[in-house]
Amino acid sequence: MPAERVSMRRVREILRLKYEAGASDRAIARSVGVARSTARLCLDRVAAAGLTWPLPEGLTDGALDALPVEPFVYAEWRRRRVGLDYHVDVDGHYYSAPHRLLREQVEARVTARTVELFHKGERVAVHVRGGLRGRHTTLPEHMPQAHRRHAEWTIERIGQEAAAVGPATAALTALILKDRPHPEQGFRACRGILRLLRTYGRDRLEAACARSIEIGARSYGSVASILQHGLDRQPAPRPARGSEELPLLHPNIRGSGYYH
């Protein structure tokens, strides 16, 4: 119990006032002559132990002192090994561990609400338990520095950075993000394209993105190649005149005269 010693008689009076009279914590503390925090801790410990009012007659002061502060929580312990992506698999959901523990064995304490990871007796991670199989729960502090920088990018930030270069760059990055099953999968390509700004400048990057859209090439490699070969400085090739209207010529294709 709290540092302030409370007799069984007072504990029973606290509970009676709470559950029979419906008194507030403040009123209970004033009536019994204890601190408000003491009255609340008495109530919390009795509730945590699953006891009801009235208390069992045989409950002694010593037994009351031994009551837990928190309710019993069922937990399972499982041995896991940290993968190369610094995550461990618990029921098909992946939880991060500090990246320094790659390939190390850890113990997972699994409850209905949380997953805790322990390494050599030291708790190294605490996660809210995730329910979706195949998904990841990742804490930023567990990431290597390079991954942490990647995680700081969002779709909104990419859009803002690309728009600052020009409309073609914004359009290309938007297309790349849209083409991926999950937009996050396009982050690497978009960041690579935006990094080309340092080497080639705004005008050339914007022209290269426009050229990339024209030819249907939606990747970092395509934009980089256009810049490396100076194609951004050349006019885009135009289709030959009438190329869209050329007839299909083949001996097995019969003209309209065949049927007359």
Helical run tally: 9
Give the amount of beta strand, in percent: 5-15%
Class by alpha and beta content: alpha+beta
Element order, helices and strands? HHHHEEEEEEEHHHHH
Number of domains: 3
Low-confidence stretches: 242-260
Most strands sheet: 4 strands, antiparallel
Number of strands: 7
**End-to-end CA span:** 106 Å
Q: pLDDT average, as an integer?
A: 80
Strand order of the largest sheet: 1-4-5-6
Can you tell me the overall shape? elongated
Determine Rg (CA atoms, Å).
34 Å
**Percent in helix:** 40-55%
Describe what you observe in this structure.
This protein is an alpha+beta fold. It folds into 3 domains: 8-65, Arc Repressor Mutant, subunit A (Orthogonal Bundle), CATH 1.10.10; 76-143, no CATH class; 155-233, no CATH class. The chain is 41% helix and 13% strand. It has helices spanning 8-19, 25-32, 36-48, 61-65, 145-151, 155-165, 167-179, 187-214, 220-228; strands at residues 76-81, 87-90, 93-96, 105-110, 114-119, 122-128, 136-137. The strands form 2 sheets. The chain has a 4-stranded antiparallel sheet with strand order 1-4-5-6, with no helix packed on it. The longest helix is centred in the last third of the chain and has 28 residues, at 187-214. Mean pLDDT is 80; it is low at 242-260.
